Amino acid sequence: MNSTQSYYTDAQPVERTSQPLLTAILAVAASLLILEQAIYKYKKGHLPGPSWSIPIIGRFADSLNPSLENYMSGWKLGDLSAVSVFNIFIVQAAKNEYSRKIFSSASYAEPCLVASAKKVLDPNNWVFLNGKVHSDYRKGLNVLFTRRALSSYLPIQESIYRKYFDKWTRDATPKSYMMSMRDLNMETSLKVFCGEYIPQHAQDDISAKYWLITVALELVNFPFAWPGTKVYKAIKARKVAVKWFEHASAQSKERMSNDAEPECLLDHWTKAMHEAKNNAHTDGSSKVLRAREFSDNEMAMVVLSFLFASQDAMTSGVVYIFQLLADHPEVLGRVREEQYRVRGGDVDSPTTLDMIDQMTYTRACIKESLRIKPPVIMVPYLTKKPFPINADYTVPKGTMLIPSIYPSLHDPAVYGDPESFRPERWLPDANGNPSDAEKAAANYLVFGHGPHHCLGKEYAVLHMTALIGSASVLMDWEHIVTPQSHNVEVIATIFPKDGFVAKFNKRESIA
């Protein structure tokens, strides 16, 4: 036998054994794909949604460019609907009753924000706590938003507002203001939370890098922290921020141990811990603060979570209230009238909490803006065990269960003409009785509901009211409408797709 014959003779057995192997691999792959579809159909049950899932990736393509219109299409499918993305089984709740039930059912579901949230924000972050531990933790934070604390934050806030107003009015060129408003929120929050404990160069670094955390918390993202990915960059940004927040906490504890007056949120927290150890008060906050001392890392994690809400959700709220007021000059006119009255015609007078209390119409505008364009349109939860959400359907364990906020705020049965900006719907009647909208508190889910509702709600409303109050008497602004102005970009929160293009001018006279 020559060498050529020997080559083909030796090769024939390999050829014969490779064919069955390939067949086996294909059979296993086909079986797994069939199993994937069977599991999806079993979990989905009778819920509306795609009748089958695209193998492996599911509806991932839709999530690459999320839009409010796509989410609305999903909500219209039914009170509950199902979908799968990368083998993550997702159930969306559009009905207010179900959204509230999810928010309130801590024994069945816990907030997961998004699949990458624990990697980005740290698995030990307090926002992922549940039950009594979470409840007690929150009690220890209530001292951060008392009237005493909020009053001390206002001068810090106003000084930064005016700094940005000067900057905006010096350049009357029309441009997108979303990121500048985000910078205003970041600087305000860092100063309110940490005072002067973080040097300016570090504040600038945190502000620049914190946006990486925001973009990594999109609803669907590449979940692995591989170098170069959004999640990897966000984790690095978080570590930088936490290092500085721990430094600020340590500095605050040292300063407040000398009976100094509190000048920022960390100071109020530290002072409250000192006071709790020396009094016998029986309120929940005092009991918690007396029983434990929060570590620098724990305090840093709280500041990290507050900063996420304030620079992301609050920026969305600020952008939309500026846009809506520019689009409704008659409403802005009423805001100005109220501001001049409350301030006694003195536009340079410092804003106080007593003034804020008198800004009934301005606060109604804030509430209506947050209703029409809620910064957060949904909050993903993860089921810890089978969740019988109604008599006909039990949500399987391990499901991403999403209570939707937007449909409750646009329910025409609760809010007449829900797409219209009507602050008057929140005002009391001539006899001082609450309006129908005000009575429908169950639908106003802007700040969530249940044990994880937004702890900083009062601060957020105070900030937006003080900001718009000052802006209305110090500036005129014009919204430059573009084809993208009224289209919504969905990141972790929502923004106008064009980033709110506007121009600002200094207001010279009072009307």
From TrEMBL:
Q: Does the keyword Heme apply?
A: yes
Q: Which UniProt keywords apply?
A: Heme, Iron, Membrane, Metal-binding, Monooxygenase, Oxidoreductase, Transmembrane, Transmembrane helix
- Provide one Gene Ontology biological process annotation: sterol metabolic process
Where along the chain is heme bound?
C454
**EC class:** oxidoreductase
Family matches, as InterPro entries: Cyt_P450, Cyt_P450_CS, Cyt_P450_E_grp-IV, Cyt_P450_sf
Cofactor(s) of this protein: heme
Key word Cytoplasm present: no
Kindly list the residue ranges recorded as spanning the membrane.
20-40
PROSITE patterns, per this entry?
Answer: CYTOCHROME_P450 (PS00086)
What family is this protein classified in? Belongs to the cytochrome P450 family.
What's the protein name? Answer: sterol 22-desaturase
* Organism field: Wallemia ichthyophaga
